[in-house]
Hints:
The complex is a heterotrimer of chains A (477), B (234) and C (241). With 477 residues, chain A is of the alpha/beta class.
Amino acid sequence: MPMHIGEKDFKKRVTKGLEDDFMRGAVRSAQGRLQDKRATAADELGDWEDWRTLGSEIRSHTIEHLDYYLHQLSEKVAELGGHVFFAETGEEANEYIQKVATEKEAKKIAKSKSMVTEEISMNEALEAIGCEVIETDLGEYILQIDDHDPPSHIVAPALHKNKEQIRDVFHEKLDYLKSEKPEELALFAREKLREEFLSADLGITGCNFAVAESGSFALVTNEGNARMVSALPKTQITVMGMERIVPGWEELDIVVSLLTRAAVGQKLTSYITALTGPKQLEEADGPEEFHLVIVDNGRSKILGTEFQEALHCIRCAACINVCPVYRHVGGHAYGSIYPGPIGAVLSPLLSDYDEYKELPYASSLCGACTEVCPVKIPLHEQLIMHRRKIVEDEKKSTLSERVVMRGFEQLVNSANLYRTATKMAPFLTTPFAKNQLITKGPGPLKHWTHARDFPQPANERFRDWFENRQKRGEKNA
Amino acid sequence: MPKGNIINRDSFLTNIREKIGGIAADKPVEKPSWSVKPQKKVLEGYDQDQLISVLREQCKEIHTDFYQTTLAELTGTITEVMEEYESESIVYSDDPRFDNANIEEYLQGLNAFKWDRNDRENSIKVAERAEVGITFSDITLAESGTVVLLNDKGQGRSVSLLPANYIAIIPKTSIVKRMTQATDYIHAKVEKGEDIASCINFITGPSNSADIEMNLVVGVHGPIRAAYIVVDDL
Amino acid sequence: MKISFFVTCLGDMFYVNAGKAAVELLEHLGCEVDFPKAQTCCGQPAYNSGYHKETLEVAKHLVETFEDAEYVVGISGSCVYMIHEYVHLFEEGSEWQKRASKLKDKTYELTQFIVDVLDVEDVGASYEGVATYHTSCHMTRLLGVTEAPFRLLENVKGLQMIDLPNRHDCCGFGGTFSVKMSDISEQMVDEKVEHIEETKANLLLGADGSCLMNIGGRLSRNGSSVEVKHIAEILNSRGDL
């Protein structure tokens, strides 16, 4: 699955989302639960703001010295006998992974959840050389079975589906005959996937955090699929976005504590698995061969720019879970595997403004995302910075908008002009108004008045009232 | 183990360095001292018995059965859990602590298999069919209800993973406040240049998923039920 | 205490009663209020749309307009926050930045000023009604004023306050967002209106004209009987009960 998903046209994607009542119902209830769980977990922990501060300091420091920590990480991994491949592009990463799969004569590949492999279309690359790739995260598995339906959320990829839909997919594709109860659906997937784990030739995992000081990788899951993938197949490949690293174990504690609380409101998820190199002698299970693929794929373009903080993201999706725009349009409307506020910030950076120029505007700038981000990324400010770039550097705003904004500047910079304009406003709008309400507005007001009335400007402005009152000597002459 | 290959590193890191104006990668970077340390304040001042209470409460949150016992009663408690889980077959790790706690003999009297560090295929096969997996906890985190397995050679990654039920034997002395104490311990080993286990598992209850409508389902790929047995005199 | 009143464009043109009430209220609380006539818009529409060069000029104009004031008090959390934001617009260490910073330190939102500066929580108001209060995003999240309006409203005699479910959710205004992404904005305001109706309150209060214009516009279109008022209008009511 490439980064871009679905229909090309943004407006069409939004309309599709808004019309999908099933999806909106599912997203609305999921958001409600996740918001409550996150808030409770943060309260229980206490000192939440201190935790955020610490998380933010750790992420800033790490990204500011990313070259050093990646060097240290790769040295450690190699010392332990693992192989490290640095991939500047998705293609380079895929070629390397294909080469390993070919050398190992891998037919079946079990994979745990990984956004970066989605981003670089790794599954397609492996399928192209005849491998069968099995997604083992329950949500990802459901989507894969459903003819590769794209993920709509970075933590809960099948969030847009309800249990009846999942039952039908299982029935249609896998002859599932039981009910839509989540327990029965999950048990069915457990049995199906157990066979796959045991017979896989190659395991591929993503990486929540690499630990530079020891060459370790932390995988954070609830289901245990990443443990399966890293215990059973004889060869393991871990693919990581290059920013997903912390200096040492002390910092791992903090980012994991923030991640599990912010993502799902748990103190820790069921499994945090820290892998360090291939299996050692006299260890029966675990991979005999280990490969690490570190992926840039556009990330380095962000370094040193005003968007660098976007690389601090720990992929918890807290911003997605509080976003009111996401709630109404759903993940697919963003047209990117990274939806929601972080997706609106990241997607244009990893790709370009031609593909994603609407996303920075798909926000009311309410700041809910910034407020919950566990590592304090100023998400809504980054969206404003995108808008600035689109206007000032890319010059991609519409001519009419530029004319309006120039006019606005002149208007509000001149006290006289402003006074005149505000005085004229009620008379200019009178033809459109009825009982002091505009129900069918001209120009840009047309969109507003589609569902809302707009007030007619008052005949006596506040400033007139104040002046008249002073003249009458009522107060403060 | 011979050193692994590193491919394309120089150009990759040079590019990064140019963008961030970083220093040469081989010069050590000093970690700053962080302005706050909230992790040190969690459960500050709690003694071992208070930590056990925290652990017991947390077990309710993580759908884990909690038992507290003594060395003398340990076999009885294990039997109780086995009956509760309607299970007979066991796989347990190759760990001298079973013998030290005098339960190896008891286990051998049951339908129990000791993980064989030299036989991958068979060990995995047996673990996959066993109804219960048993390991000792190396470090136990009270706050989150987590057992930490510093998988030593004979532990077996699969013992705590493949069977439908999991029992962790928790020495009272292994209980610490939270993840911070475990990561401090591991960090200290790394600092001293000691090897750390190739697979360290932080296990918090049975496996679960909320991928279907955010409804929690307990027991997905890993164990469906989990029991913690705290042993007071271990 | 001398206050230079910042009415905001919506307050000047549409919500005249809110401005009048705020002035009378501040005077009632013993303040002396003036109105610098050169004031215009805070520049937020341009800023949020990415027109930062244009915003810079607006910012300079407002800094010049208000910098001699003892205190500046505005009736919109969002616009007051925009004035606070000027500091980040100007070049680091520049003279303009220093002037903006001084202005920031003396510029307050109305309820924030009453509670934090005047140290008053009971303004002696009375108003018969059942109300719910919309917390606007910029005022709470960015300006950080969360409690002041509630403190003041709690002490209004005769007024029964009902919690608004999901009150932290945005109403969908978002400036140009409401026009550019009007279909999404409509869904957001609809959800807000649903929650308001759930409360059975007959009065919706808020401290930001823009949110009130948005929600009020939808209520009005739906033919709802819920009345919409700026918090200043209630705090300045002192009728007999």
